[in-house]
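User: Reviewer 2 asked us to show a designed sequence for the structure in our supplementary figure. I'm pasting the structure tokens here. Could you produce the per-position amino acids so we can include them in the response letter?
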């Protein structure tokens, strides 16, 4: 079976498949004391900023001082709901120092999430994907008590509201010479 790699343009399909939760894996060479220390300082900073309300980001309790799962060196995971993804991404872009960070969505397809749907801040590392399941039946919900991400109870915009918003944006951008125009509807 051949994989269709064309981008979807069906609004309902796009909304139904929107990623709601993410993992940021902060990597460090476990035998490098300076990197290990920098990684733990970054973790503590994220925790302090979460407490202060800068964003919602939940580092896993465990810090892996050896390779674990697909991760080839020391690492820890930070769970981030889509509601604060941009704030966490921005913070880590500007404050990661020399550390590498793997970012991937949480969907039912862990191998694709780690291999094809991922991004890196800093140099990438080869992952051992053989330990990951190809597909899960259930979405990997984390921290449902927060009512964010896949557990959110906030009503989504209706398709009609989304279309109105899109039309408004297109109209506003008509005056912007550098903005690309959306193709005409088929």
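Assistant: Here is a per-position design you can include in the supplement:
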């Amino acid at each position: 079976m051949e994989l269709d790699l064309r981008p979807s343009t069906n609004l309902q399909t796009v909304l139904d498949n929107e990623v709601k939760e993410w993992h940021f894996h902060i990597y460090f060479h476990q035998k490098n004391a300076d990197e290990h220390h920098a990684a733990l300082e970054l973790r503590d900073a994220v925790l302090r900023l979460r407490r202060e309300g800068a964003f919602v980001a939940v580092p896993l309790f465990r810090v892996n001082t050896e390779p674990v799962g697909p991760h080839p060196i020391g690492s820890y995971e930070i769970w981030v709901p889509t509601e604060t993804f941009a704030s966490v991404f921005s913070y880590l872009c500007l404050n990661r120092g020399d550390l590498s960070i793997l970012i991937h969505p949480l969907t039912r397809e862990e191998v694709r999430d780690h291999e094809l749907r991922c991004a890196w801040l800093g140099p990438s590392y080869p992952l051992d994907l053989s330990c990951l399941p190809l597909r899960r039946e259930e979405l990997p919900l984390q921290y449902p008590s927060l009512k964010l991400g896949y557990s959110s109870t906030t009503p989504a915009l209706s398709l009609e509201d989304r279309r109105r918003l899109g039309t408004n944006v297109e109209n506003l951008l008509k005056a912007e010479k550098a903005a690309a125009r959306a193709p005409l509807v088929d």
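For the response letter, you might also mention the following. Residues 17-151 form a domain with the Alpha-Beta Plaits fold (CATH 3.30.70.1240). The chain is about 30% helix and 15% strand.
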